[in-house]
Amino acid sequence: MTIAYLQPDTLSLALRGSVQKQNLLDFDREAFEAWFAEMGEKSFRATQLIKWIHQFGVTDFQQMNNLPKILRQSLEQNATVENLQVASDALSADGTRKWLLQLADGNVIETVFIPEESRGTLCISSQAGCALDCSFCATGRQGFNRNLTTGEIISQLWLASQLLDKDSKPGRKITNVVMMGMGEPLLNFDNVVRAMRIMMDDFAYGLSKRRVTVSTAGVVPAMDRLADMLDMRLAVSLHATNDELRNKLVPLNKKYPLKELFQACHRFVDKQKARYRITFEYVLLDGVNDKPEHARELVRLLKGLPALLNLIPFNPFEGSGYKTSSAKAIKCFSEQLHKAGITTVIRKTRGEDIDAACGQLAGKIHDKSRRSRRFEKPRFGMKQ
Ligand code: SF4
Asked: Is 110 a catalytic residue?
């Protein structure tokens, strides 16, 4: 990969201090090596910088004491480690923690940490808002502003790691990352892939491939591209079992209907040699997609795929127009899937008291799509 975000001409200018300083959070290993090659530096400097920034959380170049003084000065003049600003930090009664993070342009995105007994999962946003407009999702309602840069994506992990490190309680470490926050990750493909490479770099966060999950509503061409490029886990936001219903719940389905989506899932599994199961996310909406016939359709769709099904009780938000399925309907639905041999998990709602549950995130997006004007009292949320 070349450093697409800073072309050589621009790079020379940056090195002469004529343009804005380069944010080193935008760099994965390959980009660092290319940058140092331009500077006439050895490629091992990439490892040193990655360790300082991501493993030790150091942003002051003068503290990087294994770098030559002249290089530290050059970094000082030409580069920066620019993190997002924490606008608020909320802790739920169940231990879930949610940060509102302000971007330089005034948009506010959200990141959520969900601690469990044996792991800690960080849910990261990939876009400011979302263009896909899923009808049950509050993020979709707030409209869309722009893609996040690699630096803005990885900064969420950098900040959460630092803030959780200060917390001495056990079970407060990040062991898993899911790209399931605000936005459709595969519509911000290059920046998301670069950020995931940093997450999995042994000298940065060292997360194993099975602990990094990217979620998609079904951007079929990007699913194929992803399978060719990167080894990690995939989650598909399904939510409906036939095209008529999915067109209403997930409008992207009109472009990539279920048949194409499932063909892409099979190709993905073939390319990854079935190392990991695909997770299918299914929000249960009362009387909409939670009936026995939907469970039967779901069994047919998942047949032959190594799949894990996550059933998510809908988290209501003002003006959504949907209701949470009854406990009985959720149990019946789950049992039908179990009986058909599909591994099914009913996800517990976490962080509801701080609006951090699936579908409840609150951000502040300068909506360019004007979609939010359709709703009287827009509320914000996260990808299901
Ligand atoms: S569910 Fe995901 S893809 Fe759909 S609008 Fe919400 S954030 Fe976007």
From this structure: yes
